[in-house]
Specification:
The chain has 268 residues and is of the alpha/beta class. The protein contains ten helices and 13 strands. Heterodimer of HisH and HisF.
């Protein structure tokens, strides 16, 4: 049986509002998260991701309120992340109505958190969000990837919204996150985020080939072809986008029709 490919709108949330930037910077308001999510529900989205990008504890109540409202009004899976640093945090989000919890910075700082979450709530509830940036300083202990222009680089994991380098090889970390028990990887390339020139295919396809769990491609959609490229050349199981949906440049239905017409299996 062929698994259908998923289209996932992502809502970056700050102080209870949806915002969107470029390369993680220059944020602008995009609306109420539950209203936007309801629109995507009607358009046939397969899931919705809520990311609390400020992730400060004083904003947690605002995020919990958003999740509760969304869970009451929507009938599609919700993935929630941002500032998740303990099993108690996961429990609070899941109890509020989230179906999955996304762990990013805290998983790098405390890898055992992934294992703890998977053991308590199940692998299917734990998403490892990995933000990456290209690094041209090659060495023997990194996964060297050939780029379309013939150059070579490796991809480094970055944390704290892309502001801090870790020295960790993204491919090796994806495999370790899988070993620890996460059920899915949400991969975002800082180079392509918000630029609208397409997903970062080299790292997406590499990680997809190295792990057995689903990989969500994130960062860079500007036109319909980019979704096709993410699935066909990036070998992603799902493609995530934000601004093209938030600002009405295309609908989830537009994307699915485009893909279906080109032989990519999607749920219509």
């Amino acid at each position: 049986m062929t698994l259908t490919k998923r289209i996932i709108p992502c809502l970056d949330i700050k102080d209870g509002r949806v915002v969107k930037g470029t390369n993680f910077l220059g944020l602008r308001d995009a609306g109420d998260p539950v209203e936007l999510a309801a629109r995507y529900n009607e358009q046939g989205a397969d899931e919705v991701v809520f990311l609390d990008i400020t992730a400060s504890k004083e904003n947690r109540s605002a995020l919990i309120d958003v999740i509760r409202r969304a869970a009451d009004e929507l009938f599609l899976p919700l993935t929630v992340g941002g500032g998740v640093s303990s099993v108690d945090d996961m429990h609070s989000l899941l109890r509020a109505g989230a179906d999955k919890v996304s762990i990013n910075t805290s998983g790098i700082k405390n890898p055992d958190l992934i294992r703890q979450g998977a053991e308590k709530f199940g692998n299917q509830c734990i998403v490892s969000a990995i933000d990456v940036r290209r690094n041209d300083n090659l060495s023997d202990d990194v996964t060297i990837i050939s780029m379309p222009d013939g150059s070579e680089c490796w991809y480094e994991v970055v944390i704290y919204g892309g502001s801090k380098q870790t020295g960790i090889d993204a491919v090796l970390w994806a495999k370790e996150a899988e070993r620890l028990g996460c059920g899915e990887i949400l991969l975002t390339s800082m180079e392509t985020d918000g630029v609208k020139e397409g997903f970062d295919i080299p790292i997406t396809s590499k990680i997809a080939s190295e792990v057995k769990i689903p990989v969500i491609a994130s960062g860079g959609v500007g036109k319909l072809e980019h979704f096709y490229d993410g699935f066909v050349y990036g070998h992603a199981d799902a493609c995530l986008a934000a601004s093209v949906f938030h600002f009405g440049e295309m609908t989830v239905g537009d994307v699915k029709k485009y893909l279906a017409d080109r032989g990519v299996p999607v749920r219509i």
